[in-house]
Amino acid sequence: MSLSAAEKAALVCLWGKVAGHADVFGAEALERMFLSFPQTKTYFSHFNLRHGSPDLLKHGGKVLNAIGYAVGHLHDLSSALSDLSDLHAYQLRVDMGNFRLLSHSIQVTMAVHFGSEFTPVAQSAWDKFLSAVSAVLVSKYR
Predict the structure, then answer these.
(1) Which of 17, 62, 96, 125 is the most buried (most CB within 10 A)?
(2) What mean pLDDT, rounded, does the chain reach?
(3) What is a single Pfam family found in this protein's UniProt entry (predicted)?
(4) Domain 5-138 classification at class level
């Protein structure tokens, strides 16, 4: 993944604003994904998927905190996300296409909340970064 200095700065800056609210932002991104792409709900049949549910907040926090961990390890995403890649490939067996859908939902959520701060540079950075995270997560599916 090749990020310019401006893209790295935008990534880190926006993550700093999300970090303290990872559960809320994560739950909102999951809700957006479930509403826009209902087929993604199949992996969460045991969850209460209603707005504001503890299940959504907890899992949303897990997802976004993992993203935050990756932001702190841009230099070696493969090692940083190795255990998470194993989990998704060997235990959860999440459809690989769902990572792209969640990445899109995360970006939409950020655009809604950060408006003018989610500049073209920031959007490009987040798109590249989330694509790289997705690539690492599906790397062990083969």
Answers:
(1) 125
(2) 92
(3) Globin
(4) mainly alpha
